[in-house]
Amino acid sequence: MSEAGVIHDIGYQRYQGPRLGRGALLGALYTHGLRAAFGLGRSAKSKIFPWGVAGIVLLVAVINAGVRSQTGTWLFDYYQLDDTMSWLVIFFVAVVAPELVSRDIRSGVLPLYFSRPLRAADYVLAKVSALVTAVFLLLGVPQFIMFLTGAFTTKTGMRGVWHELGLLIPGWGYSLLWAFVFASISLLVASLTGKRAFAAGGIVAVFLMTAPVVGVLSVLPSQTANHLAGLASPMSLINGVEIWLRDRNDLGLDVGDFGPIFGIEAFCLIVACLLLLLARYRKVASL
Questions:
Q1: CB of 264 within 8 A of CB of 178?
Q2: Which residues contact 43 (CB under 8 A, 6 or more apart)?
Q3: How far from chain centre, in Å, is Cα 38?
Q4: What CA–CA distance (Å, rounded) separates 162 from 182?
Q5: How far apart are CA 48 and CA 87, in angstroms?
Q6: Cα 202 to Cα 116: distance, rounded to the nearest angstrom
Q7: What is the pLDDT of residues 39-79, one digit of tens each?
């Protein structure tokens, strides 16, 4: 008699441990995404670019702190650090965002993710949170180094420390705005293709190709067009929000009385990108 239909017991057992549910899945995706952003747990080659960018930003912050400790003045403040490093942030998200989402598309693991209790909204939340955290750390840690220098070199005691803290916290808020804008746009672009090279090129194009539009609008004879020119590019949009909130007119962009428009567009841009990203993955999850 053939033994083809015989079922052999080879020792497999049913899982008897705790069922952790969606929260654990969300946490695992977030942790994996944050580690992947800096190449942790991967080859040395994967760590070169993110840690190289982080090293450059940290070096700039240390030089700035050294000047502050010797002269008592900054080369640039907490806000200007973000503005100065904006080009590095563009290339950082252009490399990291495809790593977070394009790999999943190319490897075909999305149906496996969504076959579990994980929802499309959970996936989007984990990926966006991971990239926002990565960009915030990229900018926030150097700002904290600058704060420590200012706090330890102050000549007015605790009052000077509290004053420096009052400068750091809004600076961190500005960094968080950068993180949300850059993360939402770059993840949306990266979610459209499984090819990392195409995704990276698309992200860089979105940020760089919109910059000349600002220049064109800035030289039009219409004063209103000049004031609203910054709305055409994500980088100048964030800069316009800073000008509005800090009531500055010496930062290279003139927003006139349209400062609130910049704040509204920044909010709407982030929300629109997140909603489109959610719609994209809900479509994938329904397949």
A1: no
A2: none
A3: 13
A4: 30
A5: 18
A6: 31
A7: 888 888 888 999 999 999 999 999 988 888 888 787 888 88
